[in-house]
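Forgive a beginner's question, but might I ask you for the amino acids of a protein and the tokens describing how it folds?
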Amino acid sequence: MNTFTLISPLIIVGFIGFLLAKSGWFNKDQVNTLTRFTFNVAIPAFLFQQLANADMSTIDLNIYSAFYLPLLLVYGLALAINYYFHKHLNHDLPASAVYAFGAGYSNNVIVGMPIALMVLGEQVLPTIFLVVSLHSALLIGITSVLAVNIAQFNWPIFLKQTFFNPLLIAITGGFVINLMAIELPVIINNSLLLLGKPAITLALFLLGASLAFYRIRSEVRFIITASVLKLLLLPSLILITSHYIFHFPTLTTMTLVILSASPAGVNAYLIAKQHAKHQETIAGIVVVTTLISTVSIPLWIWGLSSVFSL
């Protein structure tokens, strides 16, 4: 498996997005508009169409345990690091929760899914969907509860933002169609294909473009710590649970490792901004993990391919 040949087009698309945004060809408002189309229309159409037609016969619900137990462990470790060792925000639970979110939240839709599909093929889609379906809801829910006074927590808004998310609606709808063995009409299926076709390219382009608007200003030590937790410790733990504890097939193990090795997503910065905690730190984590992942993810794929003789 020539990892560089497979991954390099994805990196190039992201780099083009960065250059065009940095040079002013795309301003922040234009990037935001394109982002809304991508995440509210193109990606949901792609996920719904693919999941409705996917082969779900080999799905294993132990994937949840293999992925989320290590994730919660890393989240707790990052929370403890900030809570006990941060110079200015120690014993600040909301700040610690936001920092933990940045250290654990993966950019699965923009980075993990395209790379897994490119390297492993569409047969890994059911595994990706299982992870993506719970990922945001779980981490945003935990962080939101920890970052605010529980008496002041606005449950209706949280539930609306979580369960009326276009991505979750698309995944849930696709699952239902698939499980009920309903065949999509050709016109609808082809329309969804057209809408979803640019999804991955747009997502990668927007990832690069978004980096043009972030800066690393402070908290370098905590940014590096979170990056190590995110890109090294989390994938290592998930490799252990997937391969050595649950004995998943090679493709499933590699998919989970690739997803967990993805950089921190931009949603982490939005959470930090919402709670007014660690905004510069989380922005730095997004930038650093994204840049490092252009090297670390190919290394993970190369290492796993060598071990599993792919």
About this structure: The domain at 3-307 is CATH 1.20.1530.20 (Na+/H+ antiporter like fold).
